[in-house]
Specification:
The protein is built from eleven helices and eight strands. The chain is of the alpha/beta class. The structure holds 3-methyl-2-oxobutanoic acid (KIV).
Length: 266
């Protein structure tokens, strides 16, 4: 089985093949998600909510991410594994971002790191990528900044905010990012951004025109005890077991049945 690499992702975008990404945080689910055909596994700092039971990802540490990523990596053969740089692990300085990225690659066995923030992060992305670590950006609703944003809200609805997000995406691509997550932005804006970039975009609450999709595993299995976001879908409602639900998710992303209009924003 050929492993998914940054070249695979860029060929998928060029060929118009959608990228299916899903979170996982442990060995057993890492294995199942990989075997179910997911292309990219994200060990997201959403683990703060779905694994640790916090209300936000803010309390998550880089050691938490490295630990869960290492567990996932033992179960995965094909998928690319991305680890989140959590809140406070990369904003202090470029050196801090580099050191913690190395930690996620070495201790966590990640293949790529993800960080939140727009143009402001371009210098950091340039530093990390030019020294050999691929980076995925994350713009729009950036959950680590939930207290600054005033809640988990759709971003980029006003013309100025939309323009800022387009600039953020262009700056991150220019800085060397391999991929960008667009979270909770209007579908039309995500389409514009996706069409303007050479690198793939991965949407979550960003409409069907992104180059791929990501969901939080516990949301798409309907097992998160608190409220899941409107942009998620419970794939267990139509499937008898977890493997089938994940395969349904992958197939639905690949043929653009997910996300539907009701999972998207105007
Ligand atoms: O932490 C996470 O799981 C994420 C996704 C929601 C994109 O960043």
């Amino acid at each position: 089985m050929k492993p998914v690499t940054v070249s695979t992702l860029s060929s998928m975008k060029a060929a118009g093949e959608k990228i299916a990404m899903l979170t996982a945080y442990d060995y057993s689910f890492g294995h199942l998600v990989d075997q179910s055909g997911v292309d990219v596994i994200l060990v997201g700092d959403s683990l703060g909510m779905v694994i640790q039971g916090h209300d936000t990802p803010v309390p998550v540490t880089v050691d938490d991410c490295a630990y869960h990523c290492r567990c996932v990596s033992r179960g995965v053969e094909r998928a690319m594994i991305i680890a989140d740089l959590p809140f406070g692990a990369y904003q202090a300085s470029i050196e801090q971002a580099w050191t913690n990225s190395v930690h996620l690659m070495q201790a966590g066995r990640a293949h790529m790191v993800k960080l939140e923030g727009g143009e402001l992060m371009a210098e950091t992305i340039d530093h990390i990528t030019s020294r050999g670590i691929p980076v995925c950006g994350h713009i729009g609703l950036t959950p680590q900044s939930v207290h600054q944003l005033g809640g988990f809200k759709v971003q980029g609805r006003e013309p100025d905010a939309a323009k800022r997000l387009k600039n953020d995406a262009a700056a991150q691509q220019e800085a060397g990012a391999s991929m960008i997550v667009l979270e909770a932005v209007p579908a039309s804006l995500a389409k514009d951004i996706s069409e303007s970039l050479d690198i793939p975009t991965i949407g979550i609450g960003a409409g069907v025109h992104c180059d791929g999709q990501v969901l939080v595993l516990q949301d798409m299995l309907g097992i998160y005890p608190k409220q899941s976001p409107k942009f998620s879908r419970n794939f267990m409602l139509d499937n008898d077991d977890i493997g089938a639900a994940i395969e349904d998710y992958v197939a639905s992303v690949k043929d653009s049945r997910f996300p539907a209009v009701e999972h998207s924003f105007k």
